[in-house]
Design a protein that fits this description.
single chain, 566 residues, alpha/beta, Cholesterol Oxidase, domain 2, 23% helix, globular, Choline dehydrogenase-like flavoprotein, oxidoreductase
Length: 566
């Protein structure tokens, strides 16, 4: 094999991936004196040099409309990625509908994520003990809480007190002040709470105060541009403006981009010796060696790497047979209504921070425990509503001046409640290696099998009834089509919260890794991304990925310094 270009010299740890988990691993390990090499499949990306924060959509091709290569719009931070990547296919079993999003850029999904960062609660770590479905985590909330505290302070999270069952509050000093609710959000709050539905300040990884730092200073959000474009001032958390620059400043981190890792290479004593990767620009293969390998490539890619490593047809670290199994994604559905009381309201700056200022946490745990609901796990609503182009369904069939006036009147009068819910792992949802298809680098691709169970379908039906109750309380005109819940649900993978393909556990016979992400079969291969999740609660996973990566990285640093991985 050729020497790894740009990766000369010894390293202690190879980190595959540079997003939330990879960035955290690099930050913690280099700070502890560990020499690290990040291999990132995507291209280099510097938001401070590349992001166009202020250009109007009218300056963009197609006025910024999404295209296959830029699914979220022309100015979006996504670079070379999406649900489809040229030359890098994936397949599906018959009857499955799954969409696998891959960012393909330094910083991964942290460059363009939603930034909603709720903590998992005690029920979320022990779901089997509560309802007999899925599996319990080998750790509980109390094990992770100190790491949540540290991550919130480290990345900058704004939010307020929740005071609700299974929605843990952060200790004093962890959170920045939340932004004030917008007018539509205040209206939703009044309507929802009159129905007994709680509304709270969302916990969001966007700065509302400056975070000074000698290496990576970050400024408070100035409430003016879409976060999806990236952030040159570092207000929203992304590893490219925080963890990665800080890790590089130690002098112990090197990064190789356009490095598509194809497999883990084994050495003596049943340990990994390093990895093999393909230069995406030249197609040349390289091998690099290290004392330990951290897989932080994302749930699907981490599973693919392990399945393509080790014993042919079985994969590496798969003595349990659970590798690729237990795949989940968040359920998703969107509900909208036209609210007459918001029509024609005075114009003012309603931008705020990117995304919602408030949200609706799940509130019916007691009813669920008593068996009064026909689904076993919770959901929450993320809230939308501000000035912008109104929904077509909210406009009358008029033309010319009348249409212009109708658009002005309806702008800001459409509100939305977007459901995100928990999926319970099922035997029919998994990923495996397709025996007949390879990507342009010659690497076998993943094949996905996916289906929702009755629990997820019933959950969405319940959520629609709750959303419509709020809309009716506001005398709103519901804009949703009258379709069965199965037809309004997002496809698997579309919410980009896929988790669980190499779940953690207390028993090597039924899990792939221990509570620190260390594979049972190969003690110097550590997983730090969403693949290790034993369940996929309705709460967005990134904060928990960061907290678990912090916890796992500190343990790995201790093992390296003690000589346990000599």
């Amino acid at each position: 094999m050729a020497a790894a270009k740009g990766a000369d010299g010894p390293v202690d740890v190879i980190i595959v991936g540079s997003g939330a988990a990879g960035g955290m691993a690099a930050h913690v390990l280099t700070k502890a004196g560990v020499r690290c090499l990040i291999l990132e499949a995507g291209r280099d990306y510097d938001p401070q040099a590349e992001v166009n924060m202020f250009a109007p959509e009218s300056d963009a091709p197609l006025r910024g409309t999404g295209t296959p290569d830029k699914p979220f719009g022309y100015f979006d931070a996504t670079v070379d990625g999406g649900w489809q990547v040229e030359g890098e296919p994936y397949t599906m079993t018959e009857g499955s509908d799954f969409r696998w999003y891959r960012p393909r850029m330094l910083g991964g999904r942290t460059n363009h994520w939603g930034r909603h960062v709720p903590r998992f609660g005690a029920y979320d770590f022990k779901p089997f003990s509560r309802d007999g479905l899925g599996a319990d985590w080998p750790i509980g909330y109390d094990d992770v809480a100190p790491f949540y505290d540290r991550v919130e302070r480290m990345i900058g999270v704004n939010g307020g007190k929740l005071g609700l069952e299974n929605h843990p509050d952060s200790p004093p000093g962890c959170l920045m002040p939340p932004p004030k609710p917008r007018v539509p959000e205040m209206l939703i709050t009044a309507a929802a709470e009159s129905l007994g539905i709680p509304v709270r300040a969302a916990h969001t990884a966007v700065l509302t105060r400056d975070m000074p730092d000698k290496v990576a200073p970050r400024s408070a959000c100035f409430n003016a541009t879409p976060c999806t474009r990236g952030c040159t001032i570092g207000a929203m958390f992304q590893t490219t403006t925080s963890l990665l620059p800080m890790a590089k400043a130690t002098g112990r981190l090197r990064v190789v981009t356009d490095a598509m890792v194809s497999r883990v290479v084994m050495g003596a004593r049943g340990r990994a010796a390093g990895v093999e990767y393909v230069d995406r620009k030249t197609g040349q293969r390289h091998q690099v060696k290290a004392r330990a390998v951290v897989l932080a490539a994302g749930t699907g890619e981490t599973a693919r790497l392990l399945l393509n490593s080790g014993e042919a047809g079985r994969g590496l670290a798969n003595s349990s047979g659970e590798l690729g199994r237990n795949l989940t994604d968040s359920t998703g559905a969107s509900f909208r209504a036209f609210i007459p009381g918001l029509a024609g309201r005075p114009r003012y700056n309603e931008d705020g921070i990117g995304g919602q200022h408030i949200y609706i946490p799940f509130w019916q745990y007691e009813q669920q425990k008593r068996g009064e609901l026909d689904f076993a796990r919770g959901y929450h609503f993320e809230i939308g509503g501000r000035f912008g182009v109104p929904a077509e369904a909210a406009l009358p069939r008029v033309w010319g001046k009348d249409l212009k006036q109708a658009v002005r009147n309806a702008s800001g009068a459409t509100i939305g409640l977007t459901l995100r819910g928990e999926m319970i792992p099922n035997k029919d949802t998994f990923c495996e290696i397709d025996p007949n298809v390879k990507d342009k680098f010659g690497i076998p691709v993943l094949r996905f099998a996916f289906r929702w169970s009755k629990h997820e379908v019933n959950q969405v039906a319940h959520g629609r009834r709750a959303a419509h109750a709020v809309f009716k309380r506001l005398n709103g005109t519901i804009l949703d089509p009258d379709l069965p819940p199965e037809q309004i649900m997002t496809a698997g993978g579309e919410i980009i919260h896929e988790l669980g393909t190499a779940r953690m556990g207390a028993d090597p016979k039924s899990s792939v890794v221990d509570s620190y992400g260390q594979t049972w079969d190969v003690d110097n291969v550590v997983l730090m991304d969403g693949a290790t999740f034993a369940s996929g609660p309705h709460k967005n996973p990134t904060l928990t990925i960061l907290a678990l990566a912090l916890r796992a990285s500190e343990r790995l640093a201790t093992r390296l310094s003690s000589g346990a991985l000599a």
